[in-house]
Write a structure and sequence with these properties.
Layout: H1 6-10, H2 15-21, E1 28-31, H3 38-51, E2 60-64, H4 67-80, E3 87-90, H5 91-101, H6 103-106, E4 113-115, H7 117-127, H8 132-147, H9 152-167, H10 176-188, H11 198-240, E5 243-245, H12 246-260, H13 263-268, E6 271-274, H14 282-291, E7 298-302, H15 318-326, E8 329-332, E9 335-336, H16 341-351, E10 367-368, E11 379-381, H17 385-401, E12 422-424
Parallel strand pairs: 1-7, 1-8, 2-3, 2-6, 4-5, 6-7, 9-10
Antiparallel strand pairs: 11-12
Length: 425
């Protein structure tokens, strides 16, 4: 491991990075877009807290979302701290350990199995005999429901609402299946009917509307009914083999802290750092409140331009709620170490359209750290995916002819579906 002097690192950082690093004793929100050096800022801040402010490393807890991100952050911190260990964990591993250490109180087996989302999908596919697509859909929906703290009872309440709507058309549940079949047939053959007059046409079109309404309501009811049944069977079978999924970790950990209090955790971890805060879901946000119940020394790092997505059930208003809840100092990292100014300006022009007129000033225009202008952004529009592939191959051939090594050429794509493609370089 190559050790890096903290003073040497600090001397290379930008003013706003240093501002973020030296604020350690109260809530802080660091707004950091892609390529703005957020990981460097976080790791340097942890090192600064330990080396310059003599904070015990065991009192610092850093939470992120992926194992890879946690490993990378841990390694960078240890380089600055000459091997001193810091608790850098994923939310799931932190909650899993909390539950395992308190298994009896959490009413779970101490050696519980862990289901990742794909494990849940495979389990549903195998045990509930669904098709692969449905199994994946159910696993994803169950996970998001738990992350958003939506119980199965809430789904049942919604199902009762749907049931009443279907009953408004046909009260006898025993007739629903046959009525659905008949309505589908009548709707599919409606175009074959002849009308005696305008009144007859009006009557039959009203009947067509009723067929359509019943079909939509019944299929919606059936969809939720099947899902709820599958969720109940999934929980029963999962419990039978002593397994917990990722959604269980957050919910059980939050329940435990609600029931048994937070004093022990608050005494242990006096400084909390959250990476990728924009990805936190509702339950994780509630956990963050518990972790900071006694000490408000919390730093969260977030990319505000990603909060428009409900990624993995992300709590899309979490940054605004954090501001109201914690009243943090706010620092925006305004320098990009990844992109040139031309790319940054184009990106800013596009991204600011996600902001309302009253919020556009919050969309920060980044600058390249060396003020490098770079080349123009080229947009190539093609008729279909074959033409898109041809255009990309031609561009690669052009680079190769210039003597650029193949290993320095990369193709990035958002999705490989769609009839019409756009390639950007």
């Amino acid at each position: 491991m190559v050790l890096i002097s903290l003073d040497s690192l600090l001397s290379t950082l930008k003013p706003r990075q240093l501002e973020a690093i030296k604020h350690t004793q109260a809530p802080q929100l660091i707004l950091a877009g892609a390529g703005t050096g957020k990981t460097t800022t976080i790791t340097a801040k942890i090192a600064y807290m330990v080396e310059k402010e003599s904070i015990d490393p065991s009192q610092i807890l850093a939470l992120t979302f992926s194992k890879e991100a946690a490993k990378h952050m841990r390694e960078k911190v240890e380089k600055h701290l000459h091997g001193k260990e810091i608790q850098v964990r994923t939310f799931h591993s932190f909650c899993a350990e909390l539950i395992k250490d308190n298994a009896d109180k959490c009413k779970v087996l101490g050696d519980f199995k862990i289901f990742e989302e794909m494990d849940s999908a495979i389990f549903i596919f195998r045990e509930l005999k669904t098709d692969a697509y449905t199994a994946k859909l159910y696993a994803n929906t169950i996970g998001k429901a738990k992350d958003l703290n939506i119980s199965i009872d809430k789904f049942k309440e919604f199902l009762e609402t749907l049931k009443k709507q279907v009953q408004n058309i046909e009260k006898d549940e025993n007739k629903w299946k046959e009525l659905h079949r008949e309505s589908k047939f009548k709707l599919n053959t409606f175009h074959l009917q002849e009308f005696k007059d305008k009144e007859d046409k009006k009557t039959k079109q009203a009947e067509k509307k009723r067929y359509s309404e019943f079909i939509d309501l019944y299929e919606e009811y059936l969809k939720y009914s099947n899902f709820i049944s599958a969720w109940e069977k999934y929980e029963e079978k999962k419990s039978g083999i002593g397994a917990l999924d990722y959604g269980d970790f957050n919910k059980i950990a939050l329940w435990y802290l609600d029931v048994y209090g937070t004093q022990e955790l608050n005494d242990t971890f006096r400084y909390i750092i959250i990476d990728e805060f924009q990805d936190t879901n509702y339950v994780q946000f509630e956990l963050i409140k518990k972790l900071t119940a006694a000490n408000k020394n919390i730093t969260v790092v977030a990319d505000p331009n990603q909060t428009i997505y409900a990624f993995r059930g992300a709590y899309t208003n979490n940054i605004e709620v954090f501001k109201k809840q914690f009243k943090p100092s706010i620092v925006s990292l305004d320098v990009s170490f990844r992109s040139s100014n031309k790319i940054l300006r184009v990106a800013h022009t596009l991204i600011e359209k996600n902001y309302g007129d009253d919020k556009k000033k919050e969309c920060l225009l980044l600058k390249n750290h060396e003020n490098k202008e770079g080349e123009n952004v080229n947009i190539i529009e093609t008729e279909d995916d074959n033409e898109e592939a041809r255009a990309i191959v031609e561009k690669i051939e052009e680079y190769l002819a210039q003597g650029i090594p193949p290993k320095e050429i990369a193709i990035l794509y958002r999705t490989n579906s769609g009839k019409k493609g756009k390639a950007c370089s």
